């Protein structure tokens, strides 16, 4: 029986916070004009900004683009941008539309490099990592195939010297390229690939025996950090073979 005049016992149970009211993130759009012909894309602002620091900055009020809600990408193509958009909405890298000769099962290394280049421009490491995964899957299915020279030079034109895609392709190429192939096109190889080949040549026999072609199971060794995660190190490390 409650005491008269006593204080009401405190409720020891924590009340749950009221659920937040849903606010649609698809009610704002931006216009993206792609390529020299300025093909027009209407994109949800939240999707573009959540997947690309480039778009997040471009949509800022500090930029003219953010005030006008129009972003221009003159140096890419509509097909490449469609590939980025499909990935941004679904997280699926669909390669069929990038080039007429590219299929879902066997995307061209050249085209994968083009997607990596756009992802690099848009500052999207998650998509760059997805390209790394597809490259490894592709070369896992073709264990005796070297990286095409045209694709190598194309990717070198699009990537900075410390890009993990360069390290991957060097590691793949040096474990698959014949001496005859190397000498036949010695004037066409990227300089850092030639330097890696020289380091491998002078490495100890024991280290050369330990080297193997990268595979899909080791993909994390070539991934970049996403959202502040620490970058993993490792891989075939062909380019870093030391001289004894």
UniProtKB/TrEMBL annotation:
<feature type="region of interest" description="Disordered">
    <location>
        <begin position="225"/>
        <end position="244"/>
    </location>
</feature>
<feature type="region of interest" description="Disordered">
    <location>
        <begin position="1"/>
        <end position="21"/>
    </location>
</feature>
<dbReference type="InterPro" id="IPR011333">
    <property type="entry name" value="SKP1/BTB/POZ_sf"/>
</dbReference>
<dbReference type="Pfam" id="PF00651">
    <property type="entry name" value="BTB"/>
</dbReference>
<protein>
    <recommendedName>
        <fullName>BTB domain-containing protein</fullName>
    </recommendedName>
</protein>
<dbReference type="InterPro" id="IPR000210">
    <property type="entry name" value="BTB/POZ_dom"/>
</dbReference>
<feature type="compositionally biased region" description="Acidic residues">
    <location>
        <begin position="226"/>
        <end position="235"/>
    </location>
</feature>
<feature type="domain" description="BTB">
    <location>
        <begin position="28"/>
        <end position="97"/>
    </location>
</feature>
């Amino acid at each position: 029986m409650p005491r008269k005049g006593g204080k009401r016992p405190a409720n020891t149970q924590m009340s749950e916070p009221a659920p937040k009211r849903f606010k649609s993130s698809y009610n704002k759009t931006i216009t993206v004009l792609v390529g020299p012909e300025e093909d027009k894309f209407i994109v949800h602002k939240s999707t573009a900004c959540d997947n690309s620091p480039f778009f997040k900055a471009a949509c800022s009020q500090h930029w003219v683009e953010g005030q006008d809600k129009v972003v221009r990408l003159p140096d890419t193509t509509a097909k490449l941008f469609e590939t980025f958009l499909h990935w941004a909405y679904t997280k699926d890298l669909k390669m069929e539309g990038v080039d007429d000769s590219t299929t879902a099962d066997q995307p061209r290394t050249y085209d994968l490099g083009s997607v990596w280049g756009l992802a690099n421009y848009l500052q999207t490491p998650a998509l760059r990592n997805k390209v790394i995964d597809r490259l490894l899957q592709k070369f896992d299915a073709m264990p005796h195939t070297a990286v095409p020279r045209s694709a190598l030079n194309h990717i070198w034109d699009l990537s900075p010297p410390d890009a993990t895609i360069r390290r991957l392709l060097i590691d793949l190429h040096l474990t698959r390229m014949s001496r005859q192939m190397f000498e036949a096109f010695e004037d066409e190889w990227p300089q850092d690939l030639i330097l890696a080949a020289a380091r491998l040549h002078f490495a100890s026999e024991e280290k050369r025996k330990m080297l193997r072609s990268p595979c899909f199971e080791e993909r994390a060794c070539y991934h970049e950090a996403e959202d502040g995660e620490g970058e993993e190190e490792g891989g075939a490390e062909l380019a870093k073979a030391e001289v004894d």
